[in-house]
Amino acid sequence: xxxxxxxxxxxxxxxxxxxxxxxxxxxxxxxxxxxxxxxxxxxxxxxxxxxxxxxxxxxxxxxxxxxxxxxxxxxxxxxxxxxxxxxxxxxxxxxxxxxxxxxxxxxxxxxxxxxxxxxxxxxxxxxxxxxxxxxxxxxxxxxxxxxxxxxxxxxxxxxxxxxxxxxxxxxxxxxxxxxxxxxxxxxxxxxxxxxxxxxxxxxxxxxxxxxxxxxxxxxxxxxxxxxxxxxxxxxxxxxxxxxxxxxxxxxxxxxxxxxxxxxxxxxxxxxxxxxxxxxxxxxxxxxxxxxxxxxxxxxxxxxxxxxxxxxxxxxxxxxxxxxxxxxxxxxxxxxxxxxxxxxxxxxxxxxxxxxxxxxxxxxxxxxxxxxxxxxxxxxxxxxxxxxxxxxxxxxxxxxxxxxxxxxxxxxxxxxxxxxxxxxxxxxxxxxxxxxxxxxxxxxxxxxxxxxxxxxxxxxxxxxxxxxxxxxxxxxxxxxxxxxxxxxxxxxxxxxxxxxxxxxxxxxxxxxxxxxxxxxxxxxxxxxxxxxxxxxxxxxxxxxxxxxxxxxxxxxxxxxxxxxxxxxxxxxxxxxxxxxxxxxxxxxxxxxxxxxxxxxxxxxxxxxxxxxxxxxxxxxxxxxxxxxxxx
Length: 630
Known about the structure:
25% of the residues lie in helices and 28% in strands. The strands form five sheets. It has a seven-stranded mixed beta sheet with strand order 1-7-6-5-2-4-3, with helices on both faces. Strands 8-16-12-13-15-10-9 form a seven-stranded antiparallel beta sheet, with no helix packed on it. Strands 17-21-19-18-22-23 form a six-stranded antiparallel beta barrel. Helix 10 packs across helix 16 and helix 12 runs parallel beside helix 13.
């Protein structure tokens, strides 16, 4: 196989020519495959290293190098001290270099599975990926994972760099076998071009100059291929999309909307609509610091002024009236999970898409994807670096395009609501129009009328604490006293609802999240009916208690933490559950094999160590009276 150029999709022909402009590409693949060395070789051979840098590199090679007496070119990119000590890449390192024919920005991404999220960051805006494969090891799991992520993130052009071919005697048979294995795996990934090249990054074979040790390979060197491949961005040819970053209002006489054009072209006089509301208007001016523009194209940061006064806020998307995106509160998407804490369907996260941030839940994990075989696997959750296909539900309708049509308006990240850490990256596939024909029915009897009939305000008393803490006992006593006072109440107990409403749920973390979600929605219906509803649930996770709280108006949700030391709970053990859990007979038991996250700002904390249940119940009732609820 002297040269292989696989056209895996229409329109993937490689064109040649000079002055191609900027090319963004990344290097990826398994660990210790030579990614940093390859970039160092490109920088070194392109004569972009100053003499003082070279002298420093020689010194560092003696201290941290892994190639004997030779200069370790990988150290040009591995800038972190931790990386140099371990001999691996941890973070994404970006480097800029030029040749007479093109400019390049290259992202050196980590090979370790632990840092897959960093690799995805590098791939998110790349035009081309260089997948490195160790000639001694062939196609590995991380090779497949990185290839699949590149495919998901819209990278259309691939170079399969079979590196360290010198360690296999520059064997054509080894090269052909690895290429055949890779092409068999990648045939369904949708790359437009796949170009295999045998090379030795350490010695520069087929990187910048053609190697006489590989006479059987008749294709281009890596730099020749990178200089000539046509990956010109088509963002300007796509429909106009303008995510509003902020409303620019320096004085009473000026109101503009600032942001960066995500795709397409806009000119003064063009008609636009606010995607979410459908309100139509016209672009009046395109304002920049250097003066007004006749047009703005993809990538331009500008301020648009509009002909009409339109209600627009940060996160809104301006689009043409004839090429609108989808607007929905439910959609399906691929999701790459990026944190040690598993994905829990039903848990509320924050989703950032463009400049809009919205609460979101994964309503269903349809399947996980085996990166080795690309098979679809059943699953209830996603672990670190796993990829799944999920259904999502947002708190409010959002505007988006399928990711395959527009990378800018079809990509999103998930954010943990407590830590603000990015936990996932998603690519929208299509909207789910399940809610399109569902509208709220107006009711003739309203909530205020129900409150007036009941003679008291509604509220949720959310009792949380360990198993055996006394939650149900105290909640029962509170309901008894409220009932005697003529208050309409209902008690939702954790054990009772699992006999009916939640009988299909187990005790995994994912099932616990769904358990609380359902109970929160039922409690909301009781509040709409004007009832004081008492919920007695372990509800061990802060995120789910917060999710339940956010269903209600300010002051309607009262968290009651029944604070009982686990030692006391174990002594009581009214159901004999702790004894079984301590023997390992019960999995996922809160306080033993599953964590309990203590409330940090509960409205009431009941310390049961030195008080009787009746006294704790009295405190709850007194608190309701003080708040004017009863």
